[in-house]
Design a protein that fits this description.
Elements: H1 3-6, H2 16-25, E1 27-30, H3 36-52, E2 63-65, E3 76-80, H4 82-85, H5 87-93, H6 96-106, E4 110-118, E5 128-131, E6 145-150, E7 161-163, E8 209-213, E9 218-220, E10 231-238, E11 257-259, H7 284-289
Antiparallel strand pairs: 1-8, 2-3, 3-4, 4-10, 4-11, 5-9, 6-8, 6-10, 7-9
Helix pairs in contact: 3-5
Length: 296
C-alpha cells in the first residue's frame, strides 16, 4: 500500500504527527514503547537462543558468530529467523503491540516477511556499513518496514542504528562492490556528500522501538561497550505488497497475515529496484565478502 492510501486510515498507536514524521524522515523512534512484561519474555527467549549457540562452531543459517565465539563464552552477532526457533519470539511478532504499530505505517492489513535478532555481543562487535534494505528483498511496492526493538535499550557506546533522514526519498544505491559481489554496502564514493551533521543516531531505554522505511540509508557502528546490544528486527509489509525474489532469510512464517485480511490485489510502485543474487543458493556469501566496518 502506498503512503497516500495508508494516510487515509486512522492511527492505532502513533499520533498523526508521529506518522507524518515517519513518512518525512524515513524512520521514527518511539521511546520505551514495548512494555516490560514483553521485554522480560524476550530476554528469556534470547538467553535460550544464546545457550543453543554454544554447540555451534562456525556461522550457519541460524547463528552468525562473532570472532572469539566458543562454547565457554558464546559471542553472537545475529540469530536469523528467531521466530522459527523460539515460540516466544513469534508470539511477540504477531501480538497487537507490534502489528497495530506497523498498521499505522503500512495500512490495516499487515503481512510478515522475515526477522533477525542482532545480539551484537560486547567488547568490539562489528557494526554495519551504510546500506538500504529493500535491494536484498524487493517487493512490488515500498511499504515494507523494519521494526527495531532495543530489548535492553541502547547507549551511544553500543553502536546504535544510524540514519540519513530523508534518504528514502532519494535514489536506491547499488549493493554490489566493484567485483560484482553483493555486499549490502553502499560504495563510499556514492555517499561522498554525507557529512557528520546529517547523521541521526538515536538511543533510548529498554523497549525503545524504531520504525525504518525499507529505502532509508542506515548503518551502525561497532559495539564498544561490554554489554550486548539486543535488537530484534522483524520486517512487515502491507498485505498487498509482494516479494518478487527469494527471501535471503527464509521463514516458515513468510507471507503470514498477522493483522487484518489477505489482499485480493497487489500494490505496485513503478520505481525500479536493483535485484539481489539468487538467494536460493544461500545468503552466506554476503558475510564472506563483507569488509571490516568503516565506522558506521
Amino acid at each position: 500500500m502506498i503512503a497516500e492510501k495508508v494516510l487515509q486510515h486512522p492511527c492505532n498507536v502513533l499520533t498523526e504527527a508521529q506518522r507524518l514524521q515517519f513518512f518525512r524522515d524515513g524512520f521514527l523512534v518511539v521511546e520505551n514503547y514495548v512494555p516490560e512484561p514483553w521485554l522480560e519474555r524476550l530476554r528469556a527467549a534470547t538467553r535460550d537462543l544464546v545457550e543453543r549457540s554454544r554447540a555451534v562452531r562456525e556461522s550457519d543459517a541460524t547463528f552468525i558468530l562473532e570472532e572469539g565465539h566458543s562454547a565457554e563464552s558464546p559471542r553472537l552477532h545475529r540469530v536469523s529467523s528467531p521466530q522459527d526457533h523460539h515460540e516466544e519470539m513469534w508470539a511477540f511478532m504477531r501480538d497487537p503491540v507490534m502489528t497495530d504499530l506497523v498498521a499505522d505505517v503500512v495500512g490495516p492489513d499487515v503481512k510478515f516477511h522475515h526477522a533477525k535478532l542482532n545480539v551484537k555481543s560486547g567488547k568490539g562487535s562489528g557494526g554495519f556499513d551504510w546500506h538500504q534494505d529493500i535491494p536484498a528483498w524487493p517487493h512490488t511496492d515500498y511499504s515494507p518496514v523494519t521494526v527495531g526493538v532495543y530489548i535492553n535499550g541502547c547507549r551511544p557506546d553500543q553502536g546504535p542504528l544510524s540514519f540519513l533522514p530523508g534518504s528514502h526519498n532519494g535514489p536506491l544505491y547499488s549493493m554490489y562492490d566493484d567485483e560484482g559481489n553483493f555486499v549490502v554496502r553502499i560504495r563510499e564514493a556514492d555517499l561522498a556528500w554525507v557529512t557528520e551533521d546529517m547523521v541521526a543516531r538515536p538511543t533510548g531505554g529498554p523497549g525503545t522501538t524504531v520504525l525504518l522505511n525499507c529505502r532509508t540509508v542506515h548503518g551502525s557502528s561497532p559495539n564498544r561497550s561490554a554489554d550486548p546490544r539486543l535488537l530484534l528486527l522483524p520486517v512487515y509489509s502491507s498485505a498487498d505488497s509482494f516479494p518478487y525474489t527469494a527471501n535471503p532469510i527464509p521463514s516458515v512464517h513468510q507471507g503470514d497475515v498477522v493483522r487484518g485480511q489477505p489482499a485480493r490485489h497487489a500494490s505496485f510502485d513503478t520505481r525500479s529496484c536493483e535485484l539481489p543474487p539468487d538467494w536460493r543458493f544461500g545468503y552466506k556469501t554476503v558475510w564472506q565478502h563483507k569488509k571490516k566496518p568503516a565506522g558506521y
